[in-house]
Amino acid sequence: MHAVQLGDPSVPYSHERDRETARASREALLARAREHGALVATAHLTRAFVEPPGEASPGRPC
């Protein structure tokens, strides 16, 4: 799971083979974490795989 998906588990990852199942899995995991008061962290914090609208990538204008 990417940090972006903690805020919105419906955001897909480009390498998912079954996006619907992946989304459902993320939603279930986050629901269980809330239910149990768990702390959830993700290791994928170095580079986002999505660009927020209106932001430019290096070498690419908005």
Task: Give the topology, please.
Layout: H1 3-7, H2 19-36
Question: Can you tag this structure with a few keywords?
Answer:
62 residues, mainly alpha, 2 helices, 37% helix
The protein's oligomeric status is single chain
Main structural class: mainly alpha
Please tell me what the overall shape is: globular
Portion of residues in beta strands equals: under 5%
Helix content: 25-40%
How many alpha or pi helices? 2
Number of strands: 0
Runs with pLDDT <50, length 5+?
none
Distance between the first and last residues' Cα: 27 Å
N to C succession of SSEs? HH
Overall pLDDT metric:
78
Radius of gyration: 14 Å
The largest sheet is:
none
Structure description:
The chain is mainly α and 62 residues long. 37% of the residues lie in helices and 0% in strands. The chain has helices at residues 3-7, 19-36. The longest helix has 18 residues, at 19-36. It is globular and about 30 Å long. The model has no long low-confidence stretch (mean pLDDT 78).
